[in-house]
Structure formats: structure tokens, C-alpha cells
Specification:
This protein has 382 residues and is α+β, with helices and mostly antiparallel strands. It has two domains: 176 residues, no CATH class; 156 residues, no CATH class. Helices cover 28% and strands 21% of the residues. It has eight helices and 15 strands. The strands form four sheets. A six-stranded mixed β-sheet has the order 7-15-11-8-10-9, covered by helices on one side. Strands 3, 6, 12, 13 and 14 form a five-stranded mixed β-sheet that branches. A two-stranded antiparallel sheet has the order 1-2. A hairpin with a 5-residue loop joins strand 4 and strand 5. The termini are far apart.
């Protein structure tokens, strides 16, 4: 038993650290949330495989930081983007060859040209009396609320990157319009600022596009061959600008486009006598991502995908994403920060336990020219 001696207590270890367990729990939960996000949908899985590798995606224990290449996912500090004198009056050069450049690439005063950071927060609250009354309940209220928060966060970050007609408006952030979800980064009508660079007067900052208003095929052996030819033509045109090799593109499409392409793949395989065994991309197959292979590049569908800005509503679309120049940047010090249940404070008017997940991030492209979109594809009738 401790006894009092002046201002000290004999037998009490005054330097005991009590925060180790809290810090460990926060770190592990943050990692678990991030791993859940990158294992949630075909699109997020694709980002995860490119950034963290197949082994890193297999379990939360193996999941870690982005590979040194920063492929599609990168962690940044402060502002980023096209580097240069913040208050320059002349543009920074955009080199197009060993002896030439386009100048100016960008003329901007102040720091408006950087992509804006987006802050995504998901929070849960539990009245303290509910937590007190639920100590022996069949439903573990804290665990249930925490799981619900994680699931909602997974959905919201996918919407924020891909855009979604039923999701929140993530298009315009910051003091000026900076459009960073996919329908604006790779668009049809290119009259909006992306990264604060005006594409209307800078041709190098315009992505490729191709209206595909006929797909061909029909009948019992449905082979939409015009669709395949159009996609290949578009991809080859953009690969010139990308200096792309096989494996440099990720194809992402709407649900109807996926089903149309499924008909093409099925007919091709049956005609070839291979029993409908679709050709697969080795890396995506090993990661368990449902996909097709188009010109040896993976093609995936995600439920959040919508048609690009400027395309006709109720049509289908195929996005050709040039992997080396597309990124989702996460601010390093706010990388899926998770605050476990925080007890209510005495002065709270409504005494609540609070938990949060928050991330500062933005999707973007550091070259727009290599990307492309096939749009106005006839709506799938399936």
C-alpha cells in the first residue's frame, strides 16, 4: 500500500506511460480502415494493386505504405503539382522533346494553380447513456457503430474519386472550381479547369475522346466488333502521346459498357473454341479482381462510375486511364487518421462518445493528354 511522504507517493511509479495501448490501437485501426478501403470495390482494388503490390493486398498484416514508385497512390506534404515560382508571371516550360518545349505551360499569380486538398470525414456518435446501458447487450453498440462508420467511409471515398450521380458533390472544392473526380479529369466537354490549367487554350492539357455511337454485332452470336475497333483506335491514338507500353492503361467502364464487352468476349471465346474462358491479366487475376483483358490491359467495372462530363445521359462509357500519369495524392499527416471512441467531456451539452475517420486527399493527373474516353456508347439493353 502506498504511503504519503510530503508531495510524493512511495511505491508509485510516476513515469509510467499510459498511452502506448491507445497509440497502438489508433495506428492499427487506421491501417485496417485503409486496407478495407483498398479492398472494397474493383476500382479501389485496382488502385491498391498498382500502389501496394499483390502481396501487400492479401492481408492487413502485409498491407503497408505505397511502393517507391508511388504508382497511382502517393503520399505528399504541403502543396504539390507543377513545381515553379509561386508568383511567376511567365509560364513554366512543358518539354515536348529534347530540343523543344511549349511555353508557357502555365501562367498563374499566387498559389491557385495547385490542386486543392479535399477533406473527407466520417463521424459516429453514441449518447453516453446508451453506451452505459449496453454493457451486456447482445448488440455491441460500439463495434456496430464503428463498423457502420467504416463502411460509409469506404463508400464515400470511392464516390469522391469516381463521382456518382447519387453521391455527394465532390467536384468543386476550394476557393475556385477545381474539378478532380474522374468525369472531369477525363471529360468530353473540356471547358472546366483541371488543376487550374485551362484546357481550352492549352491543347496538351486535353484528353483524347471518341464518340462510339454504334457497336455492331447482333443476333445469336453477338459480337460488337465495331466497339472493339473503335476502342483500339482510340487507345492507339493516345498511346502515341503517352509513349505507352503494354500494361500502361487501366480501362474503367460503366455497368452497361461492361455487359456489352462481356458479350464480345463470350462470342470471341466460343468462336475460338475455348469454351468461354476469358483472357485474363495475370496481375489482376492473382489479386482476385473481376476484370476482362483489352489489348492486354485490364478492364474493370465499378458501380460508382458515371459518364464523363459532356457526354449524353443514359449512355455508356469506357475510360482509358494512363496509369503512370493518374494519381490519388494523400496528405501524409492525414493519411486515414482514425480517432477511436473518445469519452464525453464534462461540459458537453449532449454527452456523446465520438469516433472519426478522416483523410485529406485529391485525385488528379500530372499529364492529361495520354488519357482518353469512349463516350455516347448506346445504352445496354440487357
Amino acid at each position: 500500500m502506498a504511503t504519503a511522504e510530503s508531495n510524493t507517493l512511495v511505491g508509485v511509479i510516476s513515469s509510467l506511460r499510459t498511452s502506448y495501448q491507445t497509440l497502438t490501437s489508433e495506428d492499427l485501426y487506421s491501417k485496417a480502415v485503409q486496407w478495407a478501403c483498398f479492398n472494397s470495390t474493383p476500382w479501389m482494388k485496382a488502385l491498391g494493386v498498382e500502389a501496394f503490390g499483390i502481396e501487400g493486398m492479401k492481408s492487413v498484416d502485409a498491407f503497408g505504405t505505397a511502393e517507391t514508385s508511388g504508382r497511382m497512390i502517393r503520399y505528399d506534404d504541403g502543396v504539390y503539382g507543377i513545381r515553379g515560382n509561386v508568383f511567376a508571371t511567365a509560364g513554366t516550360p512543358f518539354f515536348v522533346g529534347r530540343l523543344g518545349n511549349i511555353n508557357p505551360e502555365l501562367i498563374e499569380g499566387g498559389d491557385e494553380w495547385a490542386y486543392s486538398w479535399h477533406r473527407l470525414i466520417e463521424a459516429q456518435f453514441i449518447p453516453d447513456v446508451d453506451a452505459q446501458d449496453n454493457t451486456k447487450g447482445l448488440v455491441k453498440i460500439k463495434a456496430q457503430k464503428m463498423d457502420g462508420m467504416k463502411q460509409k467511409y469506404v463508400e464515400q471515398i470511392s464516390y469522391a474519386i469516381l463521382g456518382n450521380s447519387s453521391g455527394p458533390d465532390h467536384n468543386t472544392m476550394g476557393p475556385t472550381a477545381v474539378n478532380t473526380d474522374l468525369p472531369y479529369l477525363i471529360s468530353v466537354t473540356q471547358d472546366t479547369s483541371v488543376g487550374a490549367i485551362d484546357p481550352t487554350s492549352n491543347s496538351y492539357w486535353q484528353n483524347g475522346k471518341k464518340a462510339i455511337t454504334s457497336i455492331g454485332g447482333g443476333g445469336e452470336m453477338d459480337r460488337p466488333i465495331i466497339l472493339r475497333r473503335s476502342l483500339l483506335d482510340m487507345k492507339n491514338d493516345q498511346a502515341k502521346h503517352a509513349e505507352a507500353s503494354d500494361g500502361d492503361y487501366l480501362w474503367l467502364c460503366t455497368q452497361g459498357a461492361w455487359q456489352i464487352y462481356d458479350r464480345l468476349m463470350y462470342a470471341d471465346q466460343i468462336q475460338g473454341g475455348r469454351g468461354g474462358a476469358f483472357v485474363q491479366n495475370a496481375k489482376y487475376d492473382a489479386a482476385g479482381i473481376s476484370h476482362f483483358s483489352f489489348d492486354r490491359n485490364p478492364m474493370i467495372w465499378d458501380a460508382a462510375v458515371t459518364v464523363p462530363y459532356g457526354a449524353t445521359a443514359s449512355t455508356e462509357a469506357f475510360y482509358g486511364i494512363h496509369i503512370p500519369s493518374y494519381f490519388v495524392s494523400i496528405r501524409r499527416e492525414e493519411n486515414f487518421l482514425a480517432t477511436p471512441w473518445e469519452e464525453p467531456r464534462e461540459h458537453d451539452r449532449q454527452r456523446m462518445l465520438v469516433a472519426q475517420i478522416r483523410t485529406r486527399f485529391t485525385p488528379g493527373v500530372n499529364r492529361r493528354r495520354p488519357h482518353c474516353v469512349g463516350y455516347n456508347v448506346p445504352a445496354c439493353s440487357d
